Amino acid sequence: MPFIRTYLIISSIYTLMKEKFPGVYLIDRKLATHNKTPGYRVYGEKTVKKKGKEYRMWDPHRSKVAAALAKGMKTFPISPGSSVLYLGASSGTTASHIADIAETVYCVEFSKRMMRELLPVCDRKQNMIPILADARHPWEYSNTIANADVLIQDVAQPDQAGILLNNYDTFKFKHALLSIKARSINSAKDPKKVFKAEKKKLTQKFEILEQLSLEPYEEDHMLLNLKAK
Ligand SMILES: C[S@@+](CC[C@H](N)C(=O)[O-])C[C@H]1O[C@@H](n2cnc3c(N)ncnc32)[C@H](O)[C@@H]1O
């Protein structure tokens, strides 16, 4: 037993930790964010304490942004001062990690059932602002949002590029992370053709910095890292 104790002490001292992007950490090569609400967990995620700070492990199987980071996304547009507009916040799994990194996260969700799960999360993580609205109608929430530098969009809708472009016309964000689910756009069409058509719609207003397939974390999903032209 003394051997196991010594092993545990040594391994906790030598846990490898690195800041991959401002506010995004790798702890033993796994993604994590610094928990702004220590002791509070959102979806049963593991937490780790390092030098008096608590970190929430960020699961790429539960979050498309984490999946893109795990797949080697080279640039990350969100930093501690960012104001983020999050379309399709659901119960706040990914949005809560973004809230650990950014200054403010405006969480748009149109399902009342998901909003009921999101509200207690926003109550604890006070830089998450819940907005019950349809992402296809940005005018419904334009008055609530002071400004947005980055958009994250993860809505299973047929016109995913169109929704992003509509929101861009209203908020003029500089960067966007767009998760495209091919089957929501056209379940009969080859996903490669669906991705190509969505990208084409975006290129007039956005430069595509990176495109990442989210497999094996998500099937037939792509994440586009976009910069406004
Ligand atoms: C795949 S889930 C999002 C998961 C979330 N991004 C995460 O990683 O924690 C998609 C969410 O988008 C919401 N949604 C779909 N269409 C929407 C719309 N037009 N406006 C707002 N929310 C929408 C759904 O209700 C659902 O909660």
Roughly what fraction of the amino acids lie in strands? 25-35%
User: Any ligands, ions or cofactors bound here, and which?
Assistant: S-adenosylmethionine
Mean pLDDT: 93
H-E order? HEEEEEHEHEHEEHEHHEE
Amino-to-carboxy terminus distance: 61 Å
Low-confidence stretches: none
| Oligomeric description of these chains | single chain
Binned, the helix content reads: 25-40%
Q: How many domain modules?
A: 2
The CATH architecture of the largest domain comes to 3-Layer(aba) Sandwich
CATH class of the largest domain: Alpha Beta
Sheet of most strands: 7 strands, mixed
**Strands in their spatial order, largest beta sheet:** 8-7-6-9-10-12-11
Note the overall shape: globular
The number of distinct helices, counting runs of at least 4 residues, comes to 7
CATH superfamily of the largest domain: Vaccinia Virus protein VP39
Overall strand count: 12
Structural class: alpha/beta
Describe this structure in words.
The structure is a single chain. With 229 residues, this protein is an alpha/beta fold. It has 2 domains: 2-57, Phosphorylase Kinase, domain 1, CATH 3.30.200; 64-228, Vaccinia Virus protein VP39 (Rossmann fold), CATH 3.40.50. It is built from 7 helices and 12 strands. It has a 7-stranded mixed β-sheet, with helices on both faces. A 5-stranded antiparallel β-sheet has the order 1-2-3-5-4, with helices on one face. The termini are far apart. The model has no long low-confidence stretch (mean pLDDT 93). S-adenosylmethionine is lined by residues 63-64, 88, 90, 93-94, 108-111, 114, 134-136, 154-157.
